[in-house]
Amino acid sequence: MTQQVTHQGLDEAVRQSPKKWVYLFSEGNATMRNLLGGKGAGVSEMTNAGLPVPPGFTITTEACNAYYEHQKQFPLGTWDQVLAALHIIETQTGKGFGSRENPLLVSVRSGAKFSMPGMMDTVLNLGINDETVQGLIALTNDERFAYDAYRRFIQMFSKIVLDTDPHDFELVLEHYKNNAGVLTDADIPASDLKQIVGEFKQIAERQSGEPFPTDVFQQLHKAIEAVFSSWNNKRAIDYRNFNRIPHNLGTAVNIQSMVFGNMGNTSGTGVAFTRNPATGEKVLYGEYLLNAQGEDVVAGIRTPSPISRLQQDLPGVYEQFKEIANRLEQHYHDIQDLEFTVEQGRLYMLQTRSAKRNAGAAVKVAVDMVEEGLITPEEAVKRVEPSQVYQLLLPRFEDASKRRAEAEGRLLAKGLNASPGAAYGKAIFDADRAEALGKAGTPVVLVRPETSPDDVHGMLVARGILTARGGATSHAAVVARGLGLPCVAGCEEIRVHEAEHLFRVVGSDVVIHEGEDISIDGATGEVFAGMIKTVEADFANETDLKKLLDWADMFRHLGVWANADYPRDAQRAVAFGAQGIGLCRTEHMFMEPERLPIVQKMILAPTYEERQSALDQLLPFQRSDFKGIFEAMVNPRTGEGYPVVIRLIDPPLHEFLPSYEDLLVEVTRLETLGGHEAELKEKTALLEAIGAIREMNPMLGLRGCRLGLTFPEINVMQTRAILEAAAELAAQGKKLHPKIMIPLVGHVNELKEVRRQLQTVADEIAEKSGGRIDYKFGTMIELPRAALTADKIAREADFFSFGTNDLTQTTFGFSRDDAEGKFLLHYVDGLDVPGLKDKVKILPSNPFQTLDREGVGQLIQMAVEKGRSVNPHLELGICGEHGGDPDSIEFCSEIGLDYVSCSPFRVPIARLAAAQAALSHAEKDR
Ligand code: PEP
Ligand code: MG
């Protein structure tokens, strides 16, 4: 009866409001993540499944967004709906908010659509003041518990809502612990806690400039505001930028009646995963603390027990928890990350969400779940983030280097293997300094006693993380796994002295100062002094990953090719699953030490004859280079070769010559020295020659096909080398498909003429080989004019390959060499503008990494349509850096390119991203 009436209270409040801003847990479900956030949707689903969830309600993400739209005012009706919902919770629990006799305490937690662990704020035990604490004492008959809850509340509320410095509170706690001669917070006696509460209130008042709020409704109002505001704190923004989570989603706020894990030794709290999120192994994995509140586990202040121990501590609870965990995994068909609290022997579930897992676990679990019949191969393919695949190809320590480190006694300590991968770098003890150094390109390992959300900016740029405290679910471990960073956590064999910028190894006199090299292995938990070289992972043994990628191949339409300049790159690309070479940049071959002098001679040759003679010397080198690449791309069993696109010389010639400035300095030095006539003469001549071909804007100058038109004999030599290499292999029965690519075409006449010149040479070699080589001529589309006139160009080309590095450079007018260092990253991170509090973002992402669909993408799409309109057999691919970027791959799939080409290491990512793109189009079409 009462329940009915109070429900009506909420319905009535909603009717009086422009929108329903508040949902009881019993009103939501798992599909409402957009509106209720992941946490809200998860607890709603659990509530409706009849699991033991403390009653509560969720304020929607829409309310958060409206709060920002209304200059940080609650949207109309929100507060009334909150009060009505709170009243329902009072009825359900039989308690009263602010009641002196039977007080209801609540938690106020953030919860966005996508989990952002630890990035936003939470306040626990809200609803305590000097009066309600008396009720708590009377009810529990436990003064210590009540005052402990009170002091925790003041501490948390002050930090989160009043924005005070947490350090002062810690000092008070330390002081009382020392005086009482106890080690942990849990041992501080009740009489001290009562005094601590008084001192905490004074600190809060001193720091915030106003009395600590005693009105519980005021506490609630302020806490909700603080959680809304935490959506836009720096660490949350950094995290969203890094994970490409949109900034306009907003967070929901969950208000839930408190249950207490700190009510003695039949109470406790913990977090657990239904499978091991570091390895994917199918065992319940996690940890808990008896007589503690939730934040104690995550904060890593006390070291928790493994979940398996719960079987001995509280056997009934353990069995029930195991059963619920299993049920939730079966229900969601995914590993769940669970938070629970036991209050005096009674289990409560506080959260379930899909667990963050590292790459190895993501792949293993996806494959295992297909084999267990829980999900389909399609679902498995959709579930693994392409960037996670990359982590499986992460570095590990080079064996010899590690053995040496061991032999030299450089193993310092062992901690928890919290997130795999190996890294070395300078030990840095502060997130700000780590950020500055990391951004400047210095390898950094961030070393902290434990990390907190305030350290995230340092973690984002670090190569690895080392913490002295905290378990497998501590902040450091969770964030590092999400970022794919190696992490050793809970390394209690070291003591970190932040103020002195050093750590000491317990039981020895070894000290590591800031800036010294250390190496960590997140797979074993080992920490070494000095640098240990790292090596790449062994793809051949990644059987689960291979299985997943084979499934991906069943769904994708895009071909995945690789950019490879050397036979060893080509071999690696094939091993990773590449089906062709989309770009072989031949100029890299010119840079090899024994060839560079010949190349320089060729460039500086005053006559055609001398140039030709240098080219004649280069021809055999190039022929053997190309032979090597073709051979790597031939299936040894069938003799069938994958397509290989070889690009004719592209860069401006000065790249092969000594720097003009250095040479000028040298000539001046020789002149002032005197007595070096011969050398001076030679260097002066070289200086003049280089001076003669100097350009103001070489990247817009004599390069690409312009170079080939100016010195046709270079192109002729390269074409000869390509086709003669192919002819030699064709004579051995191999079927080759060389594609000769002409770069930087802007006008069709450029292509027409280069092709005319080379066709004669090609026909001659092909004829000699008895017509056994199937070669093609094509061009790169990397200038806006080429894209705009693609219909004309396509008449002269068998294929197009989009050179999106240059196309981005020339479309935006951003120098690909300088823009990122000068201004472009500020465009993405946001500019500081005088008079504005928030940074102004100019671009959503770095267009050299993620294709700018709106501008560059439009040009590509236009070129695709125009090209195909005149040449339906035109083959279309992309070979700029974007070919390995999942978002850009999705675009390529959408506009119907034939293939993407990327660096060999990115081939697995591209296979998966291409499959996901195809599956998502299919879904949209349905
Ligand atoms: C491009 O411009 O996208 C490209 C692949 O060529 P390069 O990077 O060699 O200029
Ligand atoms: Mg280019």
UniProtKB/TrEMBL annotation:
Positions of transmembrane segments: none
Domain Pyruvate phosphate dikinase AMP/ATP-binding residue range list: 34-71, 82-309, 319-371
Highest taxon of the lineage: Bacteria
Chain ranges of the PEP-utilising enzyme C-terminal domain: 542-917
Record key words, sorted: ATP-binding, Kinase, Magnesium, Metal-binding, Nucleotide-binding, Pyruvate, Transferase
Record domain PEP-utilising enzyme mobile: where: 443-525
Pfam entry (one): PPDK_N
GO molecular function, one term: pyruvate, phosphate dikinase activity
Binding locations of substrate: R585, R647, E782, G803, T804, N805, D806
Cofactor: Mg(2+)
EC id: 2.7.9.1
Enzyme category, top tier: transferase
Keyword ATP-binding: yes
Active site: H475 (tele-phosphohistidine intermediate), C879 (proton donor)
Catalytic reactions of this protein: pyruvate + phosphate + ATP = phosphoenolpyruvate + AMP + diphosphate + H(+)
Residues given in the record as Mg(2+) binding sites: E782, D806
Family statement drawn from the similarity comment of this UniProt entry: Belongs to the PEP-utilizing enzyme family.
Descriptive protein name: Pyruvate, phosphate dikinase
Biological source species: Tengunoibacter tsumagoiensis
